[in-house]
Design brief:
Elements (H helix, E strand, L loop, with lengths): L2 H13 L2 E6 L5 E3 L2 E2 L6 H7 L7 E6 L4 E6 L4 H7 L4 H9 L3 E4 L3 H9 L4 E4 L5 H15 L11 E4 L1 H9 L3 H24 L6 H14 L4 E2 L4 E4 L20 E6 L1 E3 L2 E2 L2 E6 L6 H19 L9 H16 L7 H7 L46 E4 L2 E4 L12 E4 L2 E5 L4 E3 L8 H11 L2
Parallel strand pairs: 1-7, 5-6, 7-8
Antiparallel strand pairs: 1-4, 2-3, 4-5, 9-12, 10-11, 11-14, 12-13, 15-18, 16-17, 18-19
Helix pairs in contact: 5-6, 8-9, 8-13, 10-11, 11-12
Length: 441
């Protein structure tokens, strides 16, 4: 069975009864009559593999389960302007739907499809226009009550079961994510080799984008962060327009999207190709924190455990480097380490760079009441990304000022630990300096 058909079958089984309506993302105007580059909705694509706009999936659970696609009709004139369309017949055959209809027929058929169903599942509250559309369909059914038809009595958010499904990646997904990670690793290596004092951040960003596209990626998975010097201490810096200065570090957080799946990689390297003593001290500290976090990623561990492992190493390092006073225990207890490390050590990764899935068990679910964070399971994919960001301040050694470092890798939880998908990205001081030295001849 095709992976998308198998996912639809699993979701129908989870639904038990009722009908689900899941729409893809709309197109958006960029300016005048020019659209932003189109990107499908992740939930819709997860269940269909269908990437055209103006498409809706309807799933019917119960004794006679069905999957129905509504998509754009074949239209020779529009295909001349906008490109090839599957049309309902080809889409049904290629993607394994039980039925397929023209998108223009959706509103006329929607009331018929939800009538006499006990539950209606859809993405509640995400889009006001879709909320209105679903309410109109419900009211159309209610208006036929004297004809013996009834509307669903329950409205359920389809994202909850889908989030749980998306959290555990299947072999098809893991293969794509491994390839995305390999492309991003090559892009970071290329960016390292192109880095020079006097170059602009956007020039290095261009090297990333070139490698992404030449390797078959559709686009960056998110807005690339290319931050030299003090800019690296801005966590979501995206201006990418400053010159790179001799003696500074360059932090790059960038990953490609491939086949609808994200990669997410961060490295920090010296603009001149050689880490200074202070940069080495902080870089080695963050690297040690990441190693401690990797060791804590395994089935049965809590999601928070690898963050706690990284924080323990960082806190001790901040004390040892005279950046904070006291003991590691007091720094952690008082939260003063957050002066230099203010984010968590990772997040789920998948179709979205901050992927679907709860981080804490829901009340009444397995694990709720026993632990306050979700237990890791084989097949989960997450990032491991400790960091250190030092702004100028009294009491902080001046040699560390304006140094921002984050080291981020993509990791899949395995049966006995974890597998680092982005391990081909140069990371140790020796590796990074060697790559940069090689580019300089």
């Amino acid at each position: 069975m095709h992976p998308y058909s198998e996912r639809r079958a699993r979701l129908i089984e989870r639904m038990g009864s009722g009908v689900a309506v899941i729409a893809t993302a709309p197109e958006h105007l960029r300016n005048r009559d020019t659209h932003y580059g189109y990107r499908h909705d992740s939930y819709f694509y997860y269940l269909t593999g269908f990437s055209e706009p103006e498409a809706v999936l309807v799933l019917i659970a119960g004794d006679a389960p069905r999957s129905i696609l509504f998509c754009r009709e074949k239209n020779e004139e529009r295909e001349i302007w906008d490109g090839w369309r599957h049309g309902p017949d080809a889409a049904r055959e290629q993607f394994g739907f039980d039925e397929a209809h023209c998108y223009a027929e959706l509103d006329a058929k929607l009331a018929e499809l939800i009538a006499n169903q006990p539950r209606l599942h859809y993405v509640i509250g995400e889009d006001a226009a879709w909320d209105n559309r679903m309410m109109a369909a419900l009211n159309a059914v209610r208006a036929q009550s004297r004809a013996g038809k009834f509307a669903p009595s329950e409205l359920l958010d389809i994202r909850q079961p889908l989030d749980d499904m998306r959290l555990i990646k299947d072999a098809h997904e893991l293969d794509i994510m491994r390839r995305a990670a390999e492309i991003s690793a090559r892009a970071h290596r290329r960016a390292m080799q192109a880095t020079r004092p006097g170059a602009f951040e956007y020039e290095i960003e261009a090297e990333l984008l070139y490698e992404f596209r030449r390797s078959g990626s559709e686009a960056p998975a998110y807005g690339s962060i290319v931050a030299g010097g003090a800019n690296a201490c801005v966590l979501h810096y995206v201006s990418n327009n400053a010159p790179l200065r001799d003696g500074d570090l360059l932090l790059i957080d960038a990953g490609c999207e491939l086949g609808g799946y994200a990669s997410d990689v961060t490295r920090a390297w010296p603009v001149n190709g050689c880490y200074s003593a202070a940069q080495r001290d902080l870089y080695q500290l963050v690297l040690a924190a990441q190693d401690a976090a990797f060791a804590a990623v395994r089935p049965g561990a809590r999601f928070i455990d690898y963050h706690d492992a990284a924080v323990r190493v960082l806190a001790q390092g901040f004390v040892d480097l005279n950046m904070l006073a006291g003991s590691a225990d007091s720094v952690i207890e008082q939260g003063t380490y957050k002066r230099f490390y203010m984010h968590r050590t990772g997040h789920w990764l998948g179709m979205d760079v901050h992927d679907a899935g709860e981080y804490r068990p829901r009340p009444g679910s397995a694990g709720a009441g026993e632990q306050d964070w979700r237990a890791l399971e084989a097949g989960m994919v997450l990032t491991v990304e400790p960091g250190c960001y030092v702004r100028p301040a009294d009491g902080v050694p001046e040699a560390f000022w304006n140094i921002g470092i984050r080291i981020e890798d993509d990791v899949v939880v395995t049966a006995d630990g974890c597998d680092i998908y982005t391990s081909a990205t140069p990371k140790t001081i020796v590796e990074v300096e060697a790559v940069m030295r090689e580019a300089r001849g």
